Amino acid sequence: MANANEENAFFMKKYMKGQYDYFGIKSPERREIMRDFLKMHGLPNTQDIKKIAKEFWQLPQREYQYVILEVLGKMAKKAEKERIDLYEYLIVNKSWWDTIDYSASNLVGVHFQKFPELIQPYTEKWMDSGNMWLQRTSLLFQLKYKKATDLELLTDYIHQLQGSKEFFINKAIGWILREYSKTNAAWVVDFVNSNQLAPLSHREALKWLNRKRNS
User: Fold this and answer.
1) Which of 124, 87, 127, 80 is nearest to 109 (CA)?
2) What's phi and psi for 61, nearest 5 deg?
């Protein structure tokens, strides 16, 4: 590929613990390339997106996965109800935090706002799956919900995952609480003080509030 950069690719792969190969195209340049392509060709047809997404998901360089996620993000508000099954496929295949975190809030989160009747059946299934990435998604899909956050659901899922030894689960618990602290600080402080969270979750949950207090 003309825009490939071997030095960048080496460090990007190293940053991702050797999980995936890279062309070495950094995000700003990748988005510029994608923007030019979409300006010329437009977004894929709805009926083709599932096939295209799965094809991109099989390609070795991680930039392909980033591109298709961002394309799906541009199409998310007009997605059909069944799109959730494609999102689930992307979560459980080639799973790592980089794609999960984008998918959780920008795809799944948007989709559940459009089709709230899907929240309970899908997130309950994901929580019961034992799959760490599906569970992380069940926590993080509300990341941008602010006042619309379902606190009962969030509390239930945090309690179910309390005591987990998984770094990515404990980090997600802290992250969603930290984000919600920007909307309702008192609730988060009370929740943290009333529950035995993992040290990582506790620290992450209060990070924004502590920084604000000390600034």
Assistant:
1) 87
2) -80, 130
Total domains in the fold of the chain: 1
Q: Could you identify the residue written with the tokens 């700003």?
A: 28
Residues 193, 199, 200, 205: what is their CA dihedral angle, to the nearest 10 degrees? 10
Helix (H) or strand (E) holding 151: helix 151-161
Going by the DSSP 8-state scheme, the letter that residue 103 receives in this structure is I
Query: Going by C-beta distance under 8 Å and a sequence separation of 6 or more, which residues neighbour residue 154?
Result: 139, 142, 176, 180
In a domain, 37, yes or no: yes
**Residues 20, 111: Cα–Cα separation, whole Å:** 28
CATH of the domain at 68: 1.25.10.90
Residue 15's pLDDT band, with cuts at 50, 70 and 90, is confident
For residue range 127-139, what is the model confidence (pLDDT) as tens digits?
A: 999 999 999 999 9
Euclidean distance between the first and the last CA atom of the chain, given in angstroms as a whole number: 46
Asked if residue 59 belongs to a domain, the reply is yes
Give per-residue pLDDT as tens, 21-80. 888 988 889 999 889 989 999 999 999 999 999 999 999 999 999 999 999 999 999 999
Put simply, whether the predicted model's pTM sits higher than 0.70 gets the answer yes
